[in-house]
Design brief:
The chain is an all-beta fold. It has a single domain, classed as Immunoglobulin-like, CATH 2.60.40.1470. Helices cover 0% and strands 59% of the residues. The protein contains no helices and 8 strands. The strands form 2 sheets. Strands 3, 4, 5, 7 and 8 form a 5-stranded antiparallel β-sheet that branches. The chain has a 3-stranded antiparallel β-sheet with strand order 1-2-6, with no helix packed on it. This is Protein ApaG. It comes from Povalibacter uvarum. InterPro entries: ApaG_domain, ApaG_sf, Uncharacterised_ApaG. Pfam families: DUF525.
């Protein structure tokens, strides 16, 4: 079991609807997102793998698993951060994304950094 004060990764997500790449008449809605990962623990850690779950308004789920993020496995010293941007395509104008990063700390601990659910929505939608 990991010590939460020693192994703490904060994940902040900002999202944006990409109007010029979306085709609503073809049920093709493009969203970009920027992730900021910050090591708020006491031990350096490396992001090894990712697990994302994207869900559209119809309940269609797409899971993404893989090594690292954007081709990297960032190594974060305490207080250090890493930022990257990526994108997702949904068949509906509203959806959500959530997931986790699987981390390995220098002290050998393996732990997950959870990513809380984030809403993806075309601007102007109230639901």
């Amino acid at each position: 079991m990991t010590d939460p004060s020693r192994h703490k990764i904060r994940v902040d997500v900002s999202t944006n609807y990409v109007d010029d790449q979306s085709k609503p008449d073809e049920s093709h809605y493009v969203f970009s997102y920027t992730i900021t990962i910050r090591n708020e623990g006491d031990v350096p850690a490396r992001l090894m793998t990712r697990h994302w779950v994207f869900t559209d308004a119809n309940g269609k789920v797409k899971e993404v698993r893989g090594e690292g993020v954007v081709g990297e496995q960032p190594y974060l010293l305490p207080g250090q951060g890493f930022r990257y941007s990526s994108g997702a395509v949904l068949e509906t104008p509203v959806g959500a994304m959530q997931g986790s990063y699987q981390m390995v700390a220098d002290d050998g601990a393996h732990f997950d950094a959870p990513i809380a659910p984030v809403r993806l929505a075309m601007p102007g939608l109230l639901h």
